[in-house]
Specification:
Layout: H1 11-40, H2 52-70, H3 75-87, H4 104-114, H5 119-127, H6 135-149, H7 151-187, H8 193-212, H9 214-232
Helix pairs in contact: 1-2, 1-7, 6-7, 6-9, 7-8, 7-9
Length: about 230
């Protein structure tokens, strides 16, 4: 799993949401963007001048956009994902969909009872199930503990976290794209009327499909962190 990670940050998980949003912005306003780039910076359109400088500029801009998306609260798409699953009556016998991140009570009542785990680990988690405890801080402690004690389990934790954050970023990028499409329709600044309807349908489908999986991936992230922590308890 380590091949998907780059020291200092999850590059792939940051740049993919940035590319998606940048691509939507370009398709919506490419006439305005190209005229501005040509008049201000003297840069010709990408399809006329495919050079390394243009590629680097696009990569840097996409990465910056991706960082901006990464700092947005992942709990918003997570709640939307839970609401979607409740509306479509997704099977949820332990009512975990109604609990907010990090779903600690769900983990105690559901995951621990279905996964073999040492008695010390089980009792340790139960002792921290008090609702007055900040479970987010506790989960962060567990994550740091795992990364410090085991490189292999640490990589699994980083991969699970990076994947869920990337999907949250893609969810945000499609949502922001939908908002920009609405603005473009009302402002009559869209480059092509055909493109905007294609983008509208594409982003709606992507938003629903991607956001649906957010809750599942975040549950997997928490389960990976806590079970890795339990394995390391002696």
């Amino acid at each position: 799993m380590s091949r998907f990670q780059i020291r200092g940050g999850d590059f792939i998980g940051i740049i993919i949401p940035g590319i998606i949003l940048l691509f939507n912005i370009y398709l919506l306003f490419y006439h305005n963007i190209e005229s501005s780039l040509h008049s201000v910076l003297g840069i010709t359109p990408m399809y006329l001048k495919e050079d390394i400088l243009s590629f680097l500029i696009i990569t840097i801009v996409a990465y910056i956009i991706g960082i901006m998306l990464r700092v947005l609260n992942p709990n918003f798409p997570d709640r939307i994902s839970a609401i979607m699953r409740i509306i479509f009556k997704y099977k949820d016998p332990h009512k975990g969909l109604r609990e907010s991140f990090p779903y600690f009570i769900w983990f105690i009542n559901s995951a621990l009872h279905s996964i073999p785990i040492n008695k010390k680990g089980f009792n340790h988690f139960v002792s921290y199930s008090d609702l007055t405890i900040n479970h987010k801080i506790y989960v962060n402690y567990c994550k740091l503990f795992v990364m410090n004690k085991s490189e292999a389990l640490g990589q699994e934790v980083l991969f699970a976290e990076g994947l869920s954050r990337m999907v949250c970023g893609i969810s945000y990028s499609t949502l922001i794209s939908l908002l920009l499409i609405i603005v473009a329709l009302f402002s009559n600044s869209v480059s092509s009327l055909i493109n905007i309807y294609v983008l509208l349908v594409t982003n709606v489908i992507m938003f629903i499909a991607i956001t649906w999986g957010v809750r599942q991936l975040r549950v997997k992230e928490i389960t990976t962190i806590l079970l890795s922590y339990a394995l390391l308890l002696k």
